[in-house]
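batch job 7 of whatever, protein = 3-methylcrotonyl-CoA carboxylase alpha subunit
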Amino acid sequence: MNHVFELEGVDYQLWLSRWQQGYRLHFGDEVLASLDLSHQGDGCGLLTVAGASEPVRFAVDGDTIHLHIRGRTRVLRYRDPLSAHALVKKDAGLLVARAPMPGVVVQTSVSAGDQISAGTALMVIESMKLESVIRSPQDGVVDRIHFNEGESFEHGAVLVTITEEGH
């Protein structure tokens, strides 16, 4: 599963894949290490990275994770990977919803010309048997739907183009 975390103002896109009894942590095309978190209750756990274990304390407040490890506290902000990747400014007044992973369009929820609000579901996509909703991060007007229901797309493909209001 793909995840995006912000740490000290920098976004890190990480990928977790199942491996033996835990996970493997990927950064880009590189496997960094095996990873496992054993939750021990009350905000405590044991984090094992590449076979080395460290006790950790953590608190989750919405999308913010406070993590205390090795005597230092770090604040991570979880960013929805679909929102973090999907909407990128293209030109002044235009946004494009990009595919965060290869897949197929299951359902289109809007049409060209529709006025939309922040959070509006634009379409439902399926990748590796997992359905995800692509949502608008802001108000605007749907300019173009690039893929029809049932059509497949590659990672990074433009799915929907949105015009900002007033443009």
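notes: The CA atoms of residues 28 and 149 lie 29 Å apart.
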